[in-house]
Input
Amino acid sequence: MAAVPRSVWAGAIFAIIGGIGLTEARQYRLGTAVHMGPGYFPVCLSVLLLGLGASAVIVGWTKRHPDTVPIHWEMRDLTLLTAGVVLFAALIDRAGLLAAAAGLILLSCLMRIGRRPVEVALLWGLLSGFCGIIFIEIFGLPFRWL
Amino acid sequence: MSLFHNLGLGFSVALSAENFLYCLIGATVGTLVGVLPGLGPITTIAMLLPLTLKMPAIGALIMLAGVYYGAHHAGSTTAIMLNMPGEPTSVVICIDGHPMARQGRAGVALCISALGSFFAGCVGVAVIALFAPALGRAALAFGTPEYAATVVLALVVASALSGTSLLTTLAMAVLGLLLGTVGTDLNTGTLRFNFGQIGLAQGVSLVAVAVGTFAFAEIAGRMTDPGSAARDQAKISSLLPGRADLKASWLPILRGSGLGAAIGILPGTGPLLASFASYAMERRLSRHPERFGYGAIEGVAGPETANNAAAITHFIPMLTLGVPAGAAMALMLGAMMIQGIAPGPLVMADHPDLFWGIIASMWIGNMMLLVLNLPLIGIWIRLLTVPYRILYPAILIFCCIGVYSENNSSFDVLLAAGFGVIGYILKKLDCAPAPLILGLVLGPILEENVRRSLLLSRGDPLIFVTRPISLSLLLLAAALVVLLTSPWFSRRIGPDRAAEAHL
Output
């Protein structure tokens, strides 16, 4: 599939989002141009997005070029990073900053191969300590150490 | 007389010990992120935005403004020393700045760019002080169709500038507008696109989207990079430019300031376009265009000056109209609204201390940057040796805490994670995130103004093209799109692909 330009994939994504938006927005009252209902603007935007996406697919498809550089996906890094952030979100209310930071830093550190455990532990200690002092003690943000 | 009175008020605000400190913090943080590749002003402002809740409004905006122009000021340092642009706007500085460094003239390049930046900062501040009040008064004559047209201008031009295919970048902007409709409709109280999530009732968090699409997507795609280890590093010999250097630079600096200040005012453009346009102009005007690319000082002086003048005048649409001209200004507008200040032409009249305080602080901030950048250059260069493996966990944790603390909501952190994935995929498909952020902020403004315009015209859409100001704004948008996407433009001035990917 290397011959398909990126704008085709991007266009497809936009068209799908536009389609979902249109299905959802049609449930809101449309109103008229003089008295726009809550659905008027979202419907217009969804149609516009659908149209732009579809045009990008068509234009990109007709301009297909055999030597389009294939995309390099860093799936492992993206998964680790996202999992780390999700873990942070799950832990920050329940278990406090130290635990949430531990989850985030541990998972994100796996992105770089060849890290020593000492380095990870040091990073965790320094960063969570620094953030705790600044954000909890000085700024008084409402989350806990533990 | 009122100008001096206003500037006097501004300086009395900006020189108070507290605001002076905020300005210093902003300029220092800005220099730091300007020097560090992979950490830009947009990510930084997004991270700091929630913290400004606890600060006074003036101090918060002075600090965030400092981060913005500080980053643009310092981005050239790494471009000259390491051939590595600290900010996308410094890509052009690499072309001639780094060859100068390799010829042992790094100090001269740094000095000229610092002096040029300072001069541009002064010009930019003068332009704001002189023209912003007039623009603000003109803006009072703006009706809702004119606002809608200004928003369209900003979105269309920003899209035309930020990618390879106008269709997909426009789609990014429209997606941003659509995201802006999420949450409670202010007129009817209807919940839109909330998909059963209470966390979305207030709308999509701007900070979460900005952090996800800029910071997370960037970090996930950066691991395979060679890293920020100092490579190809040049030595600084003498800082002082010679008579010949000054003679060659002063005209480009003057031209760059004028060009940059003018480009910066246009909604949707900004420092990136200014620096490219200035480089193209200097090469055309030069009697020896063949020296460009091999260490011509004009190729550093002009673009670097234009970049900084535009970074300052970029504030004008946001401050006078309440319509942000770019993604970073969209975040600044968010900061203003968090503080309970309604953006628009009335800011100048209702909050003169804030308006003039920010302007005066920009001048003071530019003084600070001169000191931060020239004598302390060695410190910043040494910072570059901080490896990315240490840097990115720190960016991640600051981002997570920043997103969480805007609304004390872990849902927003999940949202940022989701936008990280979406932003990463779209970035790989050559869709730059800046139009999305701009659309998200401009969405509610556009909807409200379109709604009122159509109410006014009894549903006749021709209202947007029958009013002269509105029509000229829309024509300007169309003309700029034709110009910016024409093959002629991309051959001569067009930002190269590397810069676009980072915008």
